[in-house]
């Protein structure tokens, strides 16, 4: 059974790969825009990650998508780049950081 958007975000810190984030000081943010709408940020500093429900005022990179798309990406069923190319995932801000996200988190159910 699929997890909810909130459950998947709560699990993000357990999937965070601190070694891949060494030297990063950035904040990612997700805007989920439908059934389970909400905003979640994930701050990375000195190899540590912290989930911030409700988001932050000035994230470095913001992803906007529907809950169904985000769940599929988080569970490894949808390729994030393909979702971006087909318009299912919108990205604003630091594109280089956006490209690094798959390296920063484990995916898969």
Automatic annotation (TrEMBL):
PANTHER family: SCP2 STEROL-BINDING DOMAIN-CONTAINING PROTEIN 1, STEROL CARRIER PROTEIN 2 SCP-2 FAMILY PROTEIN. Residues 11-105 form the SCP2 domain. It comes from Nocardiopsis suaedae. It comes from the Bacteria. This is SCP2 sterol-binding domain-containing protein. Pfam families: SCP2. InterPro entries: SCP2_sterol-bd_dom, SCP2_sterol-bd_dom_sf.
